[in-house]
Amino acid sequence: MTEATTHAVTLQKVVKRYGDFTAVHQTDLGIEDGSFLTLLGPSGCGKTTTLRMIAGLTSITEGDILIKGTRVNDLPIHKRNLGIVFQNYALFPHKTVQENVAFGLKYRKVSADEARRRVGEALELVQLPQTADRFPSQLSGGQQQRIALARAIVIQPDVLLLDEPLSALDANLREDMRVELKRIQHSLGITTVFVTHDQSEALAMSDRIVVMSAGHVEQVGSPEEVYNRPSSEFVARFLGASNILEARIVSADRTGAKVETQGLGTFQAAIDQDETRRFAEGQKVKLSIRAEKLALTATGKGAAEVASGDAPDIARFDGRVTTVDYQGQVARYFLEAGGHQLQAINTIDEHPLSEGEAVSVGVRARDVVVLPQ
Amino acid sequence: MASLDPQEKPLRPWALLSPALTAILLLLVIPVCFIAVYSFWLRTATGADIAGFHLDNWAEVLGDAFYRDILGFTIWIAFATTVICALVGYIPAYFIAMTQFRHKAYLLLLLMLPFWISYIIRTMSWINILGTSGVVNVGLQWLGLTDEPIQMLYNQWTVIIGLVHFLLPFMILNVYVSLYAIDRNLIDAARSLGSTPWQAFTEVTLPLSLPGLAAGSLLCFVLAAGTYITPLVLGGPTDAMFANLVFDAIITQLNWPLGSALSLVLLALLGVLVAVYNRFAGMGQIAKSFG
Questions:
Q1: Across the interface, which of B189, B203, B208 has its CB nearest the CB of A84?
Q2: What is one cellular component GO term in this UniProt entry (chain B) (predicted)?
């Protein structure tokens, strides 16, 4: 319980079943006070169900949920003091912006003057102070989303729950709102749980990311950890573009491992300091290498020359570019190497490589992640 | 789409609307004009109508307290029926809209079921329920609560019961449509902000269902105010409604000019009501429940 005091929200062995179907398998999770936590995963992974259980919109089959150290399993939603922002904004269409934002204050013994002041502040915070007398239908989607946020934070909730709040906005607006949302969250220091299927939102905004798949938590970590050190093939594939290779451990110790692949030779691979992930000699594993970590060099420039400049932890193999996907600053290359289809994302120096070109591929040991089979 | 001939453009909507306009003209406007013309004719003792412009019928209809009283009674019956339909109909409408029941469509079908039986038969069925040898009286006597059958039929309340029975599905359907269209997230949002289930209902659900309630009320009122079968079957001698007067004048007395004037009075009253409703709510709401 000592741990629960620093956690705004704690999930203890929480399970959600619908009949025979388990939507969320036993989950333990602590959300630190004031932090921004993202539940990330494809649709149907249980992230929204988890959010709804915290909110009290969905009942819990097993386990306990604690908010500020208090068990809330049987606490009805209107007593939980949570701010929720829904994907479709859910503003009351028959009420003005002022009435919408003030709605939660009605139930909180706030005087009329105080309510007006707080609504004004909230609208100021979301940068829409002029809209108080308008109806939601007179606002754009992005404005409605800001009002929904103002309505959720004006009650000073213990936790702010965001259910895919950006996915109904168009791409440019979404990126602006992303920055905006993070700014507001940071300035208020409010514990936030954010649900999304969009990895770039998750990476940009979160203090911690919970990657979920099929009702299981796959990995919990900072954006960097989750991106650079995926703990499972699912995470590696879901975030960014990864190359997954089958391999076998040749030797392993605390600092790293030597792995052998079919067709691409042997690699040095980094292994987490984490003692729990030990790999035995001869064990079959998978390697994950981010597309942007494969450095391509045209072989025509002299392979020996390239290799001679390499640091000792860089492994090299030869390949051939099959497809070039030009994106301006960067290019995504599809290549064939040792019987494998790989992809690499490299910044472009003057000209992109051309299709059919022979290349030398370099990869550093710390960019090779060993995953259990 | 873009027409080269600028003359063609303003005419096109009229051309596209012409079938509908023709139907409305032939089936509604022209007959009403006939009735209006008729209302200025005079009926003679010999039975022949005198064509012309006589205000006698209008003087009688607008001047005689008898007609005014019955008009008032008609409004009262229609109003009471509407209020009861709204109160009684909201609950099943809410249930059908909110239920997780998989076969919701069947619930709506059950609502339509009464329409498969003649309205007159349905009205008369109340005689078997409330009549002196009806279910209720037989039951009360069997239980020993009364020795003599109680006279329950043939008063204004049985007229209202009959009308509620007839009009309830219209109300339920209209309210259902507006309740069904409410985004559930709005209710969740209200709850998360601190309102109890009842407060969420009064703050969000009820106000958002008012358009449906208004549409259902308008339909119930108009249909109730224009009825003559229910008071004929279930009402007593003093329970005649305005449409009964029209029926009597035209069918019994064969006084078409007077009947025409009377029906125009009812038409004007209900027309004003519809116009007021349309001003505040818009007719589109009623169309929704039939779409």
A1: B189
A2: plasma membrane
Provide the ipTM: 0.82
Inter-residue contact B259 to B246 (CB < 8 Å) = yes
Please answer yes or no on whether B194 and A83 come within 8 Å at the CB atom. no
The full set of domains in chain B, from first to last, is 56-290 (1.10.3720.10)
% residues pLDDT > 90 (chain B): 59
Query: What are the tokens at B93?
Result: 């409408």
Of B186, B192, B204, the CB nearest to A77: B192
Taking only residues 87 to 126 of chain A, the set having a beta carbon closer than 8 angstroms to any beta carbon of chain B reads: 88, 90, 92-94, 103-104, 106-108
Q: What is the pTM of this model?
A: 0.82
Q: Are A87 and A165 in contact (CB under 8 A)?
A: yes
Min Cα distance B80 → chain A (Å) is: 29
Q: Which residues pair with A344 in a beta bridge?
A: A333
pLDDT tens-digit readout, A45-97: 999 999 999 999 999 999 999 998 889 998 999 999 999 999 999 999 999 99
Considering A212, A228, A244, which residue would you say is the last residue of a domain? A228
Contact by Cβ (8 Å): A136, A93: yes
Residues 6+ apart with CB under 8 A from B20: none
| Residue A373 included in any domain | no
A135, A279: one domain: no
Q: Are residues A279 and A298 in the same domain?
A: no
How many domains does chain A contain in total? 3
What CATH code is carried by the domain that includes residue A249? 2.40.50
Is residue A79 domain-shared with residue A56, that is, in the same domain?
yes
Taking one residue from A and the other from B, the number of pairs with CB-CB distance under 8 angstroms is: 61
* A368 within domain boundaries: no
Write down the pLDDT at residue B68.
92
